[in-house]
């Protein structure tokens, strides 16, 4: 039976040096869900493919066009922007055929709860998303969202939210999530954020900073200044913290950054090369890989700091570690068989077994939030693929020149990764759904790598 050696050094949690932190980003405001009345649980008339489902999304109405910090032109203009964001969300997931507000008539405020069915039945729209936006006296916004079945002339679902002006896009994402979940039965994912590594400078001297943004690329913020290299960020399960690897004075350190306070904690500081820190599902532990005496193994350390425990101990290079959602298993990569392959082990390091036998090399495995699939990089062709936790059902999703480092959307339906362009070496973030048919590039102000998709915001 394998014995697990505790490291001789201690990883003590302490306040981190703040010289590489920029100004803290504004924390996500509180979104208050309001009672819009009892939503209806009725059947949907549409029986075709979701990819052909037409959804009309006109501008959100307002009871009076009032000034708001969210839009200097008033709530009427903001209603148009809300509908545009919802349209973009539903279009980019690849499942629907939405038509946005710029090509549609604008409903009046009383029509939000009593649609003019004749207007919409002739527009190839099986579904209708209508809503409103109102400015309150305290400057907060009330946003309501309604989904209707045009053929049945029925309301399917409704919900409303109270948001700060700075968070108006979150209300739009939540409306898109409401529509998506009602029509597909899937969990939402639009109201979430993404962390990644922002890259600038020449290829042989890259400056790598930690950055975050909304799931659609909006509200971009840099977290670190770039004076120290940042790598492999990961959100904590409760979304409140970001963990990342940083090289300060050439030495690897694992930091945990508190998104709410803008402060960070040094969890681990090692003299040996350290790679790929990952959270446990309960947020209590961190996995990482470290090279000691020419052998790279996987270790576990408490998220608050303390002594590390070695989980693998074989000749070769064991890297990474992604927990199954229930925390009972870990998938990782290793070259112990002579080539880079993916393995699964129990959370305590026992029962290690290879799962990749598709004829190529397997790297950067990441367990789906649903637990039913593992995304990975085919390191032979540098494409993104998925397989079951037993290694069956291997499918290739991308065909780029150099695609790597997959990360899952919170609902386990979309995968994000980064792609390196041939020749130029420039990097960017991309998303692809599980069919492999719907791929898009996310907008970032600079080159981007190492994405990490965070949980749904509350």
From TrEMBL:
<feature type="signal peptide">
    <location>
        <begin position="1"/>
        <end position="18"/>
    </location>
</feature>
<keyword id="KW-0132">Cell division</keyword>
<dbReference type="InterPro" id="IPR011042">
    <property type="entry name" value="6-blade_b-propeller_TolB-like"/>
</dbReference>
<comment type="similarity">
    <text>Belongs to the TolB family.</text>
</comment>
<dbReference type="Pfam" id="PF07676">
    <property type="entry name" value="PD40"/>
</dbReference>
<dbReference type="GO" id="GO:0051301">
    <property type="term" value="P:cell division"/>
</dbReference>
<keyword id="KW-0131">Cell cycle</keyword>
<comment type="subunit">
    <text>The Tol-Pal system is composed of five core proteins: the inner membrane proteins TolA, TolQ and TolR, the periplasmic protein TolB and the outer membrane protein Pal. They form a network linking the inner and outer membranes and the peptidoglycan layer.</text>
</comment>
<feature type="domain" description="TolB N-terminal">
    <location>
        <begin position="47"/>
        <end position="156"/>
    </location>
</feature>
<dbReference type="InterPro" id="IPR014167">
    <property type="entry name" value="Tol-Pal_TolB"/>
</dbReference>
<dbReference type="InterPro" id="IPR007195">
    <property type="entry name" value="TolB_N"/>
</dbReference>
<dbReference type="GO" id="GO:0042597">
    <property type="term" value="C:periplasmic space"/>
</dbReference>
<dbReference type="InterPro" id="IPR011659">
    <property type="entry name" value="WD40"/>
</dbReference>
<comment type="function">
    <text>Part of the Tol-Pal system, which plays a role in outer membrane invagination during cell division and is important for maintaining outer membrane integrity.</text>
</comment>
<dbReference type="Pfam" id="PF04052">
    <property type="entry name" value="TolB_N"/>
</dbReference>
<dbReference type="GO" id="GO:0017038">
    <property type="term" value="P:protein import"/>
</dbReference>
<keyword id="KW-0574">Periplasm</keyword>
<feature type="region of interest" description="Disordered">
    <location>
        <begin position="439"/>
        <end position="458"/>
    </location>
</feature>
<protein>
    <recommendedName>
        <fullName>Tol-Pal system protein TolB</fullName>
    </recommendedName>
</protein>
<keyword id="KW-0732">Signal</keyword>
């Amino acid at each position: 039976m394998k014995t697990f050696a505790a490291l001789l050094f201690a990883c003590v949690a302490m306040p981190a040096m703040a010289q590489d932190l920029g100004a803290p980003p504004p924390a996500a405001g509180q979104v208050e869900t309001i009672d819009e009345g009892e939503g209806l649980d009725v059947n949907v008339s549409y029986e075709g493919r979701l990819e052909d489902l037409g959804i009309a999304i006109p501008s959100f109405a307002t009871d009076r066009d009032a000034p708001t910090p969210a839009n200097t032109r008033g709530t009427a203009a903001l209603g148009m922007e809300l509908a545009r964001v919802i349209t973009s969300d539903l279009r980019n997931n690849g499942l629907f055929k939405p038509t946005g507000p710029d090509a549609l008539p604008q409903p009046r405020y009383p029509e939000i709860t009593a649609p003019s069915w004749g207007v919409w039945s002739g527009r190839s729209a099986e579904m209708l998303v209508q809503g409103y936006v109102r400015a309150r006296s305290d400057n907060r916004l009330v946003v309501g969202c309604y989904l209707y079945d045009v053929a049945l002339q029925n309301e399917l679902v409704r919900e409303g939210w109270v948001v700060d002006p700075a968070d108006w896009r979150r209300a739009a994402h939540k409306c898109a999530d409401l529509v998506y979940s009602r029509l597909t039965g899937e969990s939402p994912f639009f109201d979430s954020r993404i962390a990644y590594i922002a890259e600038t400078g020449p290829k042989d001297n890259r400056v790598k900073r930690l950055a975050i943004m909304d799931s659609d690329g909006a509200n971009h913020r840099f977290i670190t200044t770039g004076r120290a290299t940042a790598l492999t960020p990961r959100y904590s399960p409760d979304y409140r913290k970001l963990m990342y690897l940083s090289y300060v004075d050439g030495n690897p350190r694992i930091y945990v950054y508190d998104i709410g306070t803008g402060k960070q904690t040094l969890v681990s500081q090692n003299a040996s090369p350290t790679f790929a820190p990952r959270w446990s599902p309960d947020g209590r532990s961190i996995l990482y890989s470290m090279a000691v005496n020419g052998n790279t193994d996987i270790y576990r350390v408490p998220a608050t700091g303390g002594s590390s425990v070695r989980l693998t101990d074989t000749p070769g290079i064991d890297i990474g570690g992604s927990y199954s959602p229930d925390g009972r298993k870990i998938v990782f990569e290793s070259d112990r068989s002579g080539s880079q392959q993916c393995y699964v082990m129990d959370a305590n390091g026992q029962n290690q077994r290879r799962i990749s036998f598709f004829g190529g090399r397997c790297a950067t495995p990441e367990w789906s939030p649903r637990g039913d699939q593992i995304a990975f990089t085919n390191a032979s062709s540098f494409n993104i693929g998925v397989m079951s936790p037993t290694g069956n059902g291997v499918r290739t999703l991308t065909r780029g020149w150099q695609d790597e480092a997959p990360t899952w959307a919170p609902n386990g339906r979309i995968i994000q990764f980064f792609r390196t362009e041939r020749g130029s070496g420039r990097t960017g973030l991309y998303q692809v759904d599980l069919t492999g048919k719907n791929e898009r590039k996310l907008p970032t102000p600079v080159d981007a790598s190492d994405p990490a998709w965070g949980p749904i915001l509350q």
